[in-house]
Amino acid sequence: MTQKTVTIYTTPTCHFCHMAKDFFEEENVSFEEVDVSKSREKAMEMIELSGQQGVPVISIGDAVIVGFDEEQIRQELNLK
Question: pTM score, two decimals?
Fold first, then answer.
């Protein structure tokens, strides 16, 4: 089974972003972090993807999750 690509759009001060990254690390899920505070282009990409300005925005394969929704993340990644 190939693992879905995981990207998380974050800012350094976002508590839920840190929770999401810690969760991925604990579950041994590799992810790409995009700090939207450093790139207006990436921030616009995130807004276009999610329709939201808040972080975290997590893309898992074709799914887009706004916020740290552990249950939905587990479901998308087929984690128990």
Answer: 0.93
The CATH fold of domain 6-77: Glutaredoxin (3.40.30)
Instruction: Please state the length of the chain.
Output: 80
Close Cβ partners of 9 (under 8 Å, ≥ 6 residues apart): 34, 36, 42, 43, 45, 46, 49, 50, 55, 56, 57, 58
Give per-residue pLDDT as tens, 4-54: 899 999 999 999 999 999 999 999 999 999 999 999 999 999 999 999 999
Name residues whose C-beta falls within 8 Å of residue 23's C-beta, 6 or more positions apart in sequence. 68, 70, 73
Residues 6+ apart with CB under 8 A from 78: 1
Domain boundaries, the chain: 6-77
